[in-house]
Design brief:
By secondary structure, this protein is mainly α. 75% of the residues lie in helices and 0% in strands. The protein has one domain. α7 packs antiparallel against α8.
Length: 302
């Protein structure tokens, strides 16, 4: 017996669990972590700001990141029908134009929540939402090119949430050193985004998506990704030393060395080992982010 077909009554509107699947909670962690790093890096005690902190966490993860996932799945629905037909939209579990409606509603709700975070937090949310749509939606569709698409993702996943967290705590534009460190980790995230492209090289070629593995070849893209992840972290270590925070610098340096060791193993078989490196090397990367945030906080109180 074959799989039973869904009836129109079943798919007339999506179930809440399917909407949650569309918003992909597993992707919310990176921007929420980065926002936490921004909060720490501000050096400001939470005090009475807990409602704004909670709002910021919700904005970074379920709202803005969730919006980006809904937008991406809507505009990728034809590609997903070939490569991943079980996803909510191509499978019919989110019928008609519901995917687009969810993306629009989530954008509006994100903007509404962002109004509680002050001028700088609201401005960062606008930039994040613009990039979320520009990444997937024509005519811009940044994801068509690995250079621009990965840059947009790196900024949205690391830099903007970090900036938002620091802005919420300081109720002003963050210190320039905070912005610089957040930017460096955003640049490093460009390489992290490349790791996600190794699993879909053939599909990207067929659909005309110029991911870096397609443009550079798998081996060159892997080496470039490792370089882009490592160099900004080395710059972070140098800055922490220049700012007289040697213990923090040593801790980040140790994590970079661990990543370099793991990269050697990853580069032997990039396509097969990209998921493994995501679970090992990237863990070192995000721990280094938090250590750097504590170093910035120490600068504020010294």
């Amino acid at each position: 017996m074959g799989r039973p077909k869904m009836t129109s009554a079943v798919v007339s509107h999506p179930a809440p669990s399917v909407i949650l699947e569309l918003l992909k909670p597993i992707t919310w962690f990176p921007p929420m972590w980065a926002l936490g790093c921004g909060i720490v890096s501000s050096g400001v005690s939470p005090g009475q700001r807990w409602p704004m902190i909670i709002a910021g966490v919700l904005l970074a993860g379920p709202m803005v990141c969730g919006t980006s996932q809904a937008v991406n799945d809507w505009y990728d629905r034809h590609v997903d029908a070939i490569n991943e037909p079980d996803r909510p939209i191509p499978s019919g579990r989110i019928p008609g134009r519901w995917g687009l409606y969810i993306a629009i509603v989530w954008t509006a709700l994100s903007l509404l929540l962002a109004t509680t975070l002050g001028t700088w937090g609201f401005a960062a949310a606008i930039v994040g939402l613009v990039l979320a749509w520009a990444y997937s939606a024509p005519p811009i569709r940044l994801k068509q090119n690995g250079w621009w698409g990965n840059a947009a993702c790196g900024l949205c996943y690391e830099g903007l949430p970090w900036f938002t967290g620091a802005a919420v705590m300081s109720a002003s534009a963050p210190d320039w050193r905070v912005v610089l460190i957040a930017l460096l980790y955003s640049i490093g995230a460009h390489g992290i985004m490349t790791l996600n492209d190794f699993k879909s090289v053939e599909g990207d070629k067929r659909m005309g998506i110029d991911s870096l593995p397609v443009l550079l070849g798998v081996g060159n893209a892997a080496r470039f990704a490792c370089l882009v992840m490592a160099v900004p972290q080395v710059a972070v270590v140098a800055l922490l030393l220049a700012w007289q925070r040697p213990f923090y610098a040593a801790a980040v340096a140790a994590l970079v060395l661990a990543q370099l060791f793991l990269m050697v193993h990853f580069l032997k078989s990039p396509r097969e080992r990209a998921p493994w490196y995501n679970g090992t090397g990237i863990s070192c990367y995000v721990v280094g982010m938090l250590i750097s945030a504590f170093a910035l906080a120490a600068l504020k109180v010294s």
